[in-house]
From TrEMBL:
Domain Tetratricopeptide repeat protein 7 N-terminal: 1-48
Gene3D superfamilies: Tetratricopeptide repeat domain
Protein name (database record): Tetratricopeptide repeat protein 7A-like
One Pfam family matching this protein: TTC7_N
Length: 357
């Protein structure tokens, strides 16, 4: 780097300005690597944003700023920046793909996602290996639009378009396990369970230990009322990914008492942050509903559970299944010094336990 930076945009200074920009870009690249490894994405985005006024029309810095905004959670701002990046380099398929991913994921801007996915598809052969990903993004967009649609005819039409688009992606990249997984998921959504199982087997042949594929396999087994194979798959998934609570929730809601109890015990052995509390409440509610102990919650926004209350819901289930020892273990957790006084529902559960003992 040098202090003799040329910022003038006069034609005679173009070469010197290019050299200065290359030096600045190299420094910002090193800064991105350093701060990115430490998770300091907000600081990185602020540093890169300050450089924007000196980098008009420079794709690399614009794209770096957009990626930093995605990383720090400023998704709407990131999409605006990516839209400008598309104008700067319209032949690059990775930019609209990233924009479509952000629109589908955190923003749920499905019309925008469809627009960006169509940009990739419109490139045709120029998109190269990214063309199947464009069809994948478009298929996912149609599938999500079908979920949001209210009319049955509109849902059926969008599901049909989603399946056709995903199958086109699979034709272009027949060995891509991610595409095969989403084809299987879409087949499951339109109730073609047997075809979904066949597609999922192909995905598992390519990537045997994928968590999402194992979770979907368990759901398909459960849809066919093959509960024991579903629990076996879930146990396998939890062994590989002990901190992934999606398979655990599915296993608890299968309706198989011994297996569900074992899964609840394994979930309770994990140190649960508050972020997982809602997931655990959903899992236990689903299992209690299958046992007829309580009505399901529908459309009710539940407040977040405290770390102590995470142990409350399984306590009621253990009592209902005559597992008094496990219920007592759950109840005693409320009397730890760092958890404070128990709430009324906790005290009620303890009284129930003492009465039954």
């Amino acid at each position: 780097a040098t202090r003799d930076v040329v910022l003038s945009r006069t034609p005679e200074q173009e070469e010197d300005r290019t050299v200065s920009l290359q030096n600045a870009a190299a420094i910002y690249d090193l800064l991105s690597i350093t701060l990115g490894r430490r998770g300091q994405y907000v600081m990185l985005s602020e540093c890169l944003e300050r450089a924007m006024k000196f980098a008009f029309g420079e794709f690399h810095l614009w794209y770096q700023v957009a990626l930093s905004m995605v990383a720090c959670g400023k998704s709407a701002y990131a999409v605006s920046l990516l839209r400008e990046c598309v104008k700067l380099r319209p032949s690059d398929p990775t930019v609209p793909l990233m924009a479509a991913k952000v629109c589908i994921g955190s923003l749920h801007w499905l019309e925008e996602a469809e627009h960006f996915a169509m940009m990739v598809i419109s490139l045709g052969d120029e998109a190269g290996e990214f063309l199947p990903k464009g069809y994948l993004a478009l298929g996912l967009t149609y599938s999500l639009q079908a979920t949001d649609a209210t009319l049955k005819s509109k849902q059926d039409e969008l599901h049909r378009k989603a399946l056709q688009t995903l199958e086109r992606a699979q034709q272009l990249a027949p060995g891509d396990p991610q595409i095969i997984l989403y084809v299987s998921l879409q087949l499951a959504l339109v109730r073609q369970i047997s075809s979904a199982m066949e597609q999922l087997q192909e995905a598992l042949n390519v990537c045997r230990d994928d968590a999402n594929a194992l979770h979907l396999l368990a759901l398909l087994f459960s849809a066919q009322k093959h509960y024991q194979p579903a629990l076996d798959v879930i146990n396998m998934a939890i062994t590989e990914y002990p901190e992934n609570f999606n398979p655990s929730e599915t296993g608890v809601t299968t309706g198989q008492t011994p297996g569900a109890l074992g899964l609840l015990q394994r979930m309770l052995q994990v140190v649960l942050p508050v972020a997982f509390a809602k997931a655990l409440r959903t899992a236990v509610d689903g299992f209690l509903y299958t046992k007829g102990h309580m009505p399901p919650r529908s459309g009710v926004k539940e407040p977040p559970l405290s770390p102590a209350a995470v142990y409350l819901e399984p306590n009621f289930y253990f009592l209902a299944e005559d597992e008094l020892k496990l219920a007592g273990s759950c109840a005693r957790l409320f009397y730890l010094p760092d958890q404070g006084l128990p709430g009324p529902r906790t005290q009620c559960a303890v009284d129930m336990q003492e009465e039954r003992c």
